[in-house]
Amino acid sequence: MDLSIVIVNWNTRELLQDCLASVFRGLGGLATEVLVVDNASDDGSSGMVRLEFPRAQLVENDRNLGFAAGNNVALRRASGRYVLLLNTDTLVHGDVLSEAVRWLDAHPDVGIMGPRILNADGSVQPSCSAFPSLRHLAMQTLGLTRIPLLDGYRMTGWDRADERPVEVISGAAMFVRRAAMDEVGLLDEAFFFYGEETDWCHRFARAGWRLVFAPIPEITHFGGGAAGKLNHRRDVMMTQGTTRLHRKHGGRLAGITCFAILTAHNASRAVFWSVLSLGRKPAAVARARHFRAVVADLPQAWPVGSESSARS
Hints:
Elements: E1 3-9, H1 13-25, E2 32-39, H2 45-52, E3 57-61, H3 66-75, E4 82-86, E5 90-92, H4 96-106, E6 110-114, E7 117-118, E8 128-129, H5 134-141, E9 164-165, E10 168-169, E11 173-177, H6 178-184, H7 196-206, E12 210-213, E13 219-221, H8 233-250, H9 252-276, H10 282-297
Parallel strand pairs: 1-2, 1-4, 2-3, 6-12, 7-13
Antiparallel strand pairs: 4-11, 5-13, 6-11, 8-10, 9-12
Helix pairs in contact: 1-2, 5-9, 8-9, 9-10
């Protein structure tokens, strides 16, 4: 088996339908398996997969396990030499799957590879980044990462036209070498949603595997899939995941510092948009309401439980 394609779904039936159609069109001559894990959707997603994509292996969870645990359900079953984690809000184009497998065959020291990913308008998406260090998070809070030359975090000044080693590759479309995964372990299920792929990438790098962005075309990532249904809880869960990441790899003080930086980030945005909302512009009113709700729920964002082990 060349490639196992793993897709976790939660109430994104139409997006999943389009994603699977593009995947099966793009398989080419690869020996592949497609595993769909449904996290207790109530929108008919499972019935659609059974009816329209009988070749896909469908796993139905009786509750929403989150992104990490949902992927792990399929990763334990996957038999491919490589695994592709793929979001439901993506479309696979051309020969990207076979090109990725050929590229990985030619680079045996690479544990994780990220292909070129496009936004819905065709522009290049910054789908790889540096590790979200405390310095990077502080610069983001101060607004300095809006300047491309200073944005070493999301690397927005790089057009993704060339191959480069990176620290983090987006879980929206991530090719993983099975031999490396067997060494490093599965995703850490202490992360429910956000932070899990960053933690995974960090663990691969610590184990000596290279992480590389390769400009292999291409996959479209629309955004707004399952995460789009979370409203302000998305930012709350992002704070929790990033704080857990720092507490796990840097200790309790690093976790507290991260939490403080992200609290300042969200609070400053709440103040900024609240002032702008005095002009009664609908967009500013909506953003102010969003960030005030985030700040109100931040006490829930401190991750419970002890620090996770480096291997899951």
